[in-house]
UniProtKB/TrEMBL annotation:
<keyword id="KW-0812">Transmembrane</keyword>
<keyword id="KW-0472">Membrane</keyword>
<comment type="similarity">
    <text>Belongs to the claudin family.</text>
</comment>
<dbReference type="InterPro" id="IPR017974">
    <property type="entry name" value="Claudin_CS"/>
</dbReference>
<keyword id="KW-1003">Cell membrane</keyword>
<feature type="transmembrane region" description="Helical">
    <location>
        <begin position="165"/>
        <end position="185"/>
    </location>
</feature>
<keyword id="KW-0965">Cell junction</keyword>
<dbReference type="GO" id="GO:0005923">
    <property type="term" value="C:bicellular tight junction"/>
</dbReference>
<dbReference type="Pfam" id="PF00822">
    <property type="entry name" value="PMP22_Claudin"/>
</dbReference>
<protein>
    <recommendedName>
        <fullName>Claudin</fullName>
    </recommendedName>
</protein>
<feature type="transmembrane region" description="Helical">
    <location>
        <begin position="81"/>
        <end position="102"/>
    </location>
</feature>
<keyword id="KW-1133">Transmembrane helix</keyword>
<dbReference type="InterPro" id="IPR006187">
    <property type="entry name" value="Claudin"/>
</dbReference>
<dbReference type="InterPro" id="IPR004031">
    <property type="entry name" value="PMP22/EMP/MP20/Claudin"/>
</dbReference>
<comment type="function">
    <text>Claudins function as major constituents of the tight junction complexes that regulate the permeability of epithelia.</text>
</comment>
<dbReference type="GO" id="GO:0005886">
    <property type="term" value="C:plasma membrane"/>
</dbReference>
<keyword id="KW-0796">Tight junction</keyword>
Length: 224
């Protein structure tokens, strides 16, 4: 019963992390324009993502444009594209492997031991996908903070942390949590199987001698 609850909890948390990873990859709110000037009235809000940048004017109209060239992006955004795509693929693969390893699913007549290995594989994939996602999120956040406090950078070019970065941290945490749950479940299941196997009971020596004596006495009585 506890194992089923752990599996369902790990699958739900991993599903949330997978959905969050796909959402972070497509969201344009990685970099948000910083309002640090003296002007109170702000007419434009600039969003910069991995695939496009958007301009929102006075909370009324928003225009988005896809980047014309990958080389025009900064190095952190160029690397984040590949890493986030890899993290999305790994998290989706981990989710599919976790579904195959659930106790309630039957796939190719696999035994309980095989399902334990499948669950362990999904847990490791979840942890790997969380690490792959955490690298670009932390890299972009570090670049934004460094440029914000750099006096050489122009005020109009300074940015703040967008909502996609916070969602990326939450999604990476969910992926790490799902991987830990599945790895712990596989560990606990291995211990239960190890203690569950009991050695065959051996009869004492004196009972075997007694049994032999009764058989010999019975055989002698038949000759009388």
């Amino acid at each position: 019963m506890v194992g089923n609850v752990l599996q369902i909890a790990g699958l739900l948390v991993g599903g949330l992390g997978t959905i969050g990873t796909f959402a972070v990859t497509g969201m344009p709110q990685w970099r948000v324009s910083a309002f640090i000037e003296n002007n109170i009235v702000v007419f434009e809000t600039i969003w910069e993502g991995l695939w496009m940048h958007c301009i929102r004017q006075a909370n009324i109209r928003m225009q988005c444009k896809v980047y014309n060239s990958v080389l025009a992006l900064s190095p952190d955004l160029q690397a984040s594209r590949g890493l986030m795509c890899a993290g999305s693929a790994l998290s989706f693969l981990a989710f599919l492997v976790a579904v195959m390893g659930m106790k309630c699913t039957r796939c190719m007549q696999s035994s309980w031991q095989d399902k334990g290995y499948i669950i362990l594989t999904s847990g490791l994939l979840f942890i790997l996908s969380g690490a792959v996602e955490l690298i670009p999120v932390c890299w972009v956040a570090n670049t934004i903070i460094s440029d914000f406090y750099n006096p050489v950078v122009n005020v109009a070019q300074k940015r703040e942390l967008g909502e996609a970065l916070y969602l990326g941290w939450a999604a990476a945490f969910c992926l790490f949590a799902a991987g830990a749950i599945f790895c712990c479940f596989c560990r606990c299941g291995e211990r239960i199987r190890r203690y569950g196997y009991s050695t065959p009971t051996s009869y004492p020596m004196h009972s075997q001698h007694l049994h032999r004596k009764t058989e010999s006495s019975y055989s002698k009585s038949q000759y009388v």
